[in-house]
Amino acid sequence: MSARLSIAITLSLLATVAHAGEGLIPLTPDQGLAAEGTTILRGATTLTLYQRPDAEPLRLTIDARRIGRYEDAVVASWPADVEVARRSVSVAPGETGELLLPDCAPGPVEVLLNTGLNAATVACNGPLVLPVAADGPDGPAHFISSVGRLHFFVPAGARRFTASVRGQGTEENARLTVFAPDGREAGSATSIGSQGAELRVDVPAEDAGAAWSLTAGKPDTGTFEDCFISFGREVPQYLSSRPDGLLVPFVSGLRRPASYVGPGEEPTVRFALTRPVERGTLSARCLTDQDELSEPVSADASEGAIEVPITGAVTALQVTLESPDLPALSATTPVALLGTMLFVGGYEPLIGVEPAGAATEETGVRLSLALAEAPPGLRVEAALRRSEPSHAPGSAAAEVVQLERIDGWDGAPVELMPDDAPGNGAYEWQIVLRDESGTLLDWTRSGFLLWDGIYFVDHTPGTSGALERAIDAPWVSYATEGADAIPYRHRPSRDGIDGRVRLMATPGEYESATVGVLALADTAGLRATLSELRAASGASIPANAWEVRWARYWPQRTGWTAKAYQVVPEMLERRASVDLAAFEPAQAWLTLHVPDGAEPGRYQGTVTLEDARGKSQAHRVIVSVEPFALMEPAEYHWGLYSDSGRWKSMPEAQVRAEMRDFVAHGITSAMMYPPVHSEFSMEGDGVRVDSSEFERYMRWALQEGLRPPTVISMQALGGRVKQLVPDAEVGGEQFERVYKQIVQHFVDVGEREGWGELVWHAVDEPNRKHADRIQAAYERLSWFKDLGQLTFTTVNDPVVAQENLDPVLDARCYYAYFVGRSAEEQAARAAETADSGDRLWLYGTGCYIGMDGTTMPNRFLAGYMLRKTQAEGIWCWTLQRAKGDIYNDFDAEGMSEAKEACTTYVSEDGTEMMPTLQWEGHREGVDDFRYVYTLERLAADRGERGREALAKFDALLGDVPWGLRPIGFTAADSDALRSEIAGLIRELLEE
To answer: Is residue 587 a contact partner of residue 518, using CB atoms and an 8 Å limit?
Structure first.
């Protein structure tokens, strides 16, 4: 095996150990100490309470706090891991509620607390902790505005630990202070925005095996609002507001920093009891990669500890304590011996890397070692790479501008800085760690970006996987669960490397899957090839039914004017092959168009990845073709802001190809812009309109499959009218007359050409911050009404729609947040819209913040969320609105929205529209909706069987969360729900 190419990769090592129901005990028998200060929690988290024997039943008290104008209730549910809670309480903002748990057996009890966009303080009559593991399912502990004194446990034998803090966005800062058991300050760290700061604390021997504490608050600069706190794996991952409320694993050693195993060494893992136990047996068993449990290794509990030998076949350890003085206790922790590295409790990067340099431009890196101790001969290799913002700085398109090497690193912190002042470009430090034999141990990245003198911070999520098995090859490919983005710094799991590509589709449907690649060395000419699909019946789907594209990874701003970015996969390019640099990811996007007449059944084939040197890896592809076709929901629509001004420079074939692609991605209707494509001139008191260009685009749109309702945007018409009659008062009699003449022209042409239902739009998002916009919207919508036309406006302020515009408004197009943030909000908006006789539409899909580089949330909003509302349709904003170079997200500094607004892009040669992950997500969402629609239509004709199917579906849909960006609801979850719906459809079709 080549030492240079030998690496192990994983995501499957579990990060969370000592599950709350397995192995937690109170640190002390005391009870009744008071909390110090107020701690306000935000978001969703799993609280762990503890029912002491012979104590009164647990009672959780919740004080719901309002944040801003949000209406979200705070909900607590028990048990935390089931779909239907046995007990729950919903507390409105400003109120206090209690969750009573009278039926709990002695031991840990998990309660799910979800504050939505609001917040809460909690108290319990027994021990209570909240999780703080950054790599756990709940993530770091999330606070807002106030963090009182919180307590945590530092186990015996710990020599140091780390605590991390970060704010949110770029302006929210936080100062974390840690205190030793005697109350003296042990250290502090201040985070600037969401970049975070890490505090390393040395533990004197006399302070180990005791409760420590921390606080967080406002630093000298910036604001203190949302705050996130997490620990390294050296300490148990729990915080409590009271020292007597702490729960700890019954043994230490379940989580620990990785350790180096030298040649010939036989590693062991030591577990020590947290509290002395005089009677009983402490034992441990190994789980192997064959899912087999070994014979137990046992010791008398009075010895206080046990050591377990580890081999490369061990994947987990199960530790148990049986004592007549305690209930049975058990905990399981993942373990992996990978070459020379031993991981206990899950993967943690072996190298700590933080930005370093001037406070305003941190262009260097500060390295630290996360190993328990540095092995001999440790080597660091660092490369500073640069690319244009059109590509990832870690890609083959980047250049290496500096190389550094540290031999015999002792693990002491070290800083690396650029030799020369960086110029324009996206930069990335690539740090590689090797042992004395040259074997690769780990790697990491840290970046920054400079453009026209502006510095941008790298907020790309860190390494998401660990070392699992050796790969003696220049690259490895892997399958994923659900078709979505593969993060820039992701590493695949063992299951993914061995995985199959699975799809479910109906005849005529487009369905996508994805395959990831991680290069371990420079790789040229990597291509993906798909075979014919064949069923056992002999039916087949030809290989040319597949389309293969490659995702381009590149830096994108995190907000409209943000000085931070993430490297994401976004644009899907039609490329025959890709070249990769060492440690560069690639994502192949595979889209299958199932033929209309495809025979139902299970089809199989392969996707083969092969490079220019002939190295290849294949994955089996399994496609289930359903025995039904999806119905078209003609009474619903999915609209698109077409940004049609681009069409002026495009030939007819290219424009029509775009329109066909709209339809193929689920778009049914378009917003069109007559003032952009028409010429106006005055002839006496009348207006001459040449609308031939606009009429041509309308004709092509209908011919290529777009359908009404069409929104006719006249937002630009006011300016055109002012040019025609410069002396007229805006909104005055002459202005109104000319405006109406132009509108009437298009009304007449539409009737003559058969354009169908037209809905007219004049002012975007009128709101109470700008009274003049409300007045202008009312005025111009009233002119449309005078002409007998239907009206439309986008509404991001429900009060404006209800109180200001209702008399002149027909279609209220709400920003999806105002309808989709809760069932109560949806019911209120739908009811008032219906009472007004208006139509309820939504907008919110497209390319808003947080949408680039993922199929979610476009898929969620265009599909299940649209179904959960009572809206007729949803509009996608916007197709392509570049600010400067469409391939550079950083060249429009100073604009109110400097970030590109692009749901799709244009190819570099300008000849075709390029899809993105968010565009593919829109199509998947529309198909999700079509599955639901098909089920509901079939059920309507099948009596009691149909009602039973709909009841099952309603229960499934009830578990789908509300919100624009529902945390934890993934593409895989969407697929699973779609599969359940397909099963209900099949049942209805059975005779």
So the answer is: no
CA end-to-end distance (rounded Å), the chain: 59
pLDDT of 9 reads 32
CA-CA distance, 53 to 75, in Å (whole number)? Answer: 27
Strands of 414-563 (E only): list them: 414-416, 425-434, 440-451, 454-458, 466-470, 475-479, 501-505, 510-519, 523-530, 533-535, 540-541, 546-557
Distances, alpha carbon 238 to alpha carbons 25, 183, 232, in Å: 12, 19, 11
Q: Can you say whether residue 981 is alpha, beta or left, with left for phi > 0 and alpha for psi between -120 and 50 degrees? A: alpha
- Asked if the bond preceding 709 is cis, omega within 30° of 0, the reply is yes
**Tokens linked to 194:** 């969401």
- Residue 869, class by beta-carbon neighbours within 10 Å (0-12 exposed, 13-18 middle, 19+ buried)? buried
| Beta carbons of 133 and 163 less than 8 angstroms apart | no
Q: Which two tokens stand for residue 319?
A: 């530790």
pLDDT digit string, tens, across residues 202-235: 999 999 999 999 999 999 888 899 999 999 888 9
For 179-203, the pLDDT digits (tens) are: 999 999 999 999 887 777 889 899 9
Distances, alpha carbon 139 to alpha carbons 48, 112, 331, 967, in Å = 15, 14, 20, 12
Q: What is the pLDDT of residue 649?
A: 96
User: Buried b vs exposed e over 338-370: b needs ≥16 C-beta within 10 Å?
Assistant: bbbbbbbbbbbbbbbbbbbbeeebbbbbbbebb
| Cα–Cα nearest to 502, from 478, 484, 481 | 481
Determine which helix (DSSP H) or strand (DSSP E) holds 752, and give its type and residue range: helix 733-753
In sequence order, which residues have a C-beta less than 8 Å from that of residue 828 and are 6 or more positions away?
Answer: none
3-state secondary structure 284-334: EEEEECCCCECCCEEEEHHHCEEEEECCCCEEEEEEEEEECCEEEEEEEEE
- State how far the Cα of 570 lies from the Cα of 567, in Å rounded to an integer: 9
Are 395 and 584 in contact by the 8 Å Cβ rule? The answer is yes
pLDDT single digits (tens) 679-705: 999 999 999 999 999 999 999 999 999
For residue 124, CA distances in Å to 90, 215, 250, 323 come to 17, 20, 22, 28
Given the structure tokens 């329109």, which residue do they identify?
659
Taking the C-alpha atoms of residue 77 and residue 90, their distance in angstroms, rounded to an integer, is 9
Q: Which residues contact 161 (CB under 8 A, 6 or more apart)?
A: 154, 200, 201, 203, 231, 232, 234, 235
Rounded CA-CA distance 883/499 in Å is: 41
Count of residues making up the chain: 991
Distance CA 291, CA 286 (A): 10
- Coil, helix or strand at residue 651: coil
Exposed e or buried b per residue across 843-857, where buried means at least 16 C-beta atoms within 10 angstroms of its C-beta: bbbbbbeebbbbbbb
Return d(Cα 338, Cα 243) in angstroms, integer: 38
The bridge status of strand 454-458 relative to strand 564-573 is parallel
Whether 571 and 916 have beta carbons less than 8 Å apart is answered as yes
- What the block records as the tokens of 479 is 């399958």
315/338 Cα distance (integer angstroms): 11
User: Among 128-132, 468-472, 512-516, 634-638, whose mean pLDDT is lowest?
Assistant: 468-472
Displacement of CA 236 from its chain's centroid (Å): 27
Cβ atoms of residues 180 and 202 within 8 Å: no
Q: Are strands 669-672 and 710-713 parallel, antiparallel or unpaired?
A: parallel
Burial of 623 (0-12, 13-18, 19+ CB in 10 A): buried
Q: How far apart are CA 32 and CA 48, in angstroms?
A: 17
Nearest to 551 by CA among 629, 486, 494, 607: 486
The pTM assigned to this predicted structure is 0.87
Query: What pLDDT shows up at residue 468?
Result: 53
| Helix, strand, coil abundance in the chain, percent, nearest 5 | 20, 40, 40
